[in-house]
Specification:
about 140 residues; alpha+beta; Alpha-Beta Plaits; four-stranded antiparallel beta sheet; about 20% strand; globular; binds guanosine-5'-triphosphate; binds magnesium ion; metal-binding; Nucleoside diphosphate kinase; NDK-like_dom; phosphoprotein; EC 2.7.4.6
Length: about 140
């Protein structure tokens, strides 16, 4: 058993898809061990996505991720990081497989509904960015 970190991004919260996405997550065998409705300030979004700072879409990404509330959560499952990346689908929803969260709810390569950590190491860093120990069960 291990853990990954996810965010339901502002586009999906705005569209009223929190419940639909949480259902896909729990139906996919993930247990929610931490969760909150929260918000990334511009400074937070810059820090969270610092790894993408050199990319041409960085400014757009920071503006998008800070424009409204998000749901942050920690998910538990065997092989959590890899299995969750499979459940969310390709970054670009046009390339996302049938049955994935992004196929169902993402609007574009930028506004793509959900985040999933890309390694165990980053999952731990991202979880600690959002949650205090007492909020994790
Ligand atoms: P995350 O789970 O959110 O990290 O997505 P990912 O791992 O599938 O993609 P990546 O880490 O490469 O990019 C992070 C985020 O930047 C994406 O999820 C998009 O929201 C955004 N992004 C990536 N490529 C583009 C792009 O070409 N244009 C725009 N506007 N945003 C992009
Ligand atoms: Mg990524």
């Amino acid at each position: 058993t291990n853990r990954t970190f996810t965010m339901i991004k502002p586009d999906a919260v705005e569209a009223g898809n929190i419940g639909n996405i949480l259902k896909m997550i729990t139906d996919g065998g993930f247990k929610i061990v931490a969760m909150k409705l929260t918000h990334l300030s511009e400074t937070d979004a810059k820090k969270f996505y610092a790894v993408h700072a050199a990319r041409p879409f960085y400014g757009e990404l920071v503006e998008f991720m800070s424009r409204g509330p998000i749901v942050a959560a920690i998910l538990e499952k065997e092989n959590a990081v890899e299995d969750f990346r499979a459940l969310i689908g390709a970054t670009n929803p046009a390339e996302a497989a049938e049955g994935t969260i992004r196929k169902a709810y993402a609007k574009s390569i930028g506004e793509n509904a959900v985040h999933g950590s890309d390694s165990d190491e980053n999952a731990a860093i991202e979880a600690a960015f959002h949650f205090a120990g007492r909020e994790i069960f």
